[in-house]
Amino acid sequence: MPATALRCRICETEFPLDPVGVCSRCFGPLEPIYAADRTVTRAEIEAGPPNIWRYAPLLPVAPPAEARLAPGNTPLVSAPRLASAVGVGELLLKLDTANPTHSFKDRVVAVACAKALELGYTTLACSSTGNLANAVAARAAAEGIESAVLVPADLEPEKLIATAVYGGTIFAVNGTYDDCSRLSVELSFELDWAFVNVELRAYYAEGSKTLAFEIAEQLGWELPDAVVAPIASGAMYSKVHQGFGELLQLGLVEGARPRIFGGQAEGCAPVARAFADGAKVKPVRPNTIARSIAIGSPADGDLAVATAIASGGTIRAVPEEEIPENIKLLAETTGVFGETAPATALGALREAVRRGELGENDRVVLLVTGDGLKTPALVADTFEPVLVEPDADLILERLGVHV
Ligand SMILES: Cc1ncc(COP(=O)(O)O)c(C=O)c1O
Ligand SMILES: [Zn+2]
């Protein structure tokens, strides 16, 4: 296991690899650090299992003895019709809808749960905008432990049911995600539950690096020019950038670090606003149809802004009305039904092209982080069937085909 300690991103104090969410000196966020002399080869990775655990030498936890319902190895597919609709040279979709609960959250939860099991926890918990709750409840069911999740009570019913089915406890909170998040911090002091995004956050967040590792490996150990991601807390966006950096550092790939572009929905865009203003993130009260990324007080918002600047990318707010349009555009041009979060990322991509930041010379990866089947109401207006009697002649007549 190559991680050696947790380190505060602000004051750099180091802590043992315990379940601690923030620095006890300055309340800064913690990140695992790894042995300076760690090495890993492409051959070692390629000999690993066909899931995220092939990157175990780059993760802060030992892989599970028996990988159950392992996420990762999701398809990276070419989308030439969407590439020309949008105006970039090459566009690839990273289909994280292919994970066990149809979002990238299975990656982060698998890593956090491995740590929780190592520490002997028997309840996996989280606060969630929906997808994380799905992933926590399913992971707990797969491992045979309990789960408890805190979600806003008014989430899309599909997301609530897709969590309930696994049998854990759902606390439907009469409030926003940010209320759920505050409750989870308070409860984490009282309960011996493993809150994946509180005291296990340092381990959890590392799981998103596997998106970067997989993209590079799937491109034959090459880097794309740019990656476009949706942003809620900002953790995944920032970790994808770090993941590419580590591959370069370890000599597993060569070339320039990809530029990372981020999208937020206009109705909850504290990170995009901070990027535009060159300021610190100021919390907002979310009012957006993109519920999965409706975090008003994003834990890694400032890190995401710093990541955009360091990588040469941008973070933009996408108009609310463009989000359902983008769900349809993605579906109609690629056959992929994404949810609001990837549709928001697609909005950021389109905006980057309009501003000349991306174009015909770029090979771009769009992260399809969640599945449209969990948010179907937003595109219900596409359902305009031709109502017919069960009679072929009537259908032919309607089509103007005379036999
Ligand atoms: C589908 C989807 N994409 C992207 C995100 C953003 O992740 P992060 O909070 O790491 O920014 C989320 C967060 O819930 C999500 O559900
Ligand atoms: Zn600190």
What this model shows, in words?
The protein is globular. The strands form three sheets. The protein has a six-stranded mixed β-sheet with strand order 4-5-13-10-11-12, with helices on both faces. The protein has a four-stranded parallel β-sheet with strand order 8-7-6-9, sandwiched between helices. It has a three-stranded antiparallel β-sheet with strand order 2-1-3. The chain has two domains: 159 residues, Rossmann fold; 202 residues, Rossmann fold. The longest helix is centred in the middle third of the chain and has 15 residues. Strand 10, helix 9 and strand 11 form a beta-alpha-beta unit. Helices cover 36% and strands 16% of the residues. With 403 residues, the chain is of the alpha/beta class. The model has no long low-confidence stretch (mean pLDDT 97). The protein has 14 helices and 13 strands. It starts with a strand and ends with a helix.
Largest sheet: 6 strands, mixed
**Which CATH architecture of the largest domain?**
3-Layer(aba) Sandwich
Quote the CATH topology of the largest domain. Rossmann fold
Report mean pLDDT, rounded to a whole number. 97
Helix content: 25-40%
Helix and strand run: EEEHEHEHEHEHEHEHHEHEHHEHHEH
Helical run tally: 14
Structural class: alpha/beta
Rg from Cα: 21 Å
- Could you say how many structural domains there are in total? 2
Shape annotation: globular
Query: What's the CATH first level of the largest domain?
Result: Alpha Beta
Low-confidence stretches: none
Strand content: 15-25%
Distance between the termini: 71 Å
Strand order of the largest sheet: 4-5-13-10-11-12
Q: Got a strand count? A: 13
- Ligand inventory: pyridoxal-5'-phosphate, zinc ion
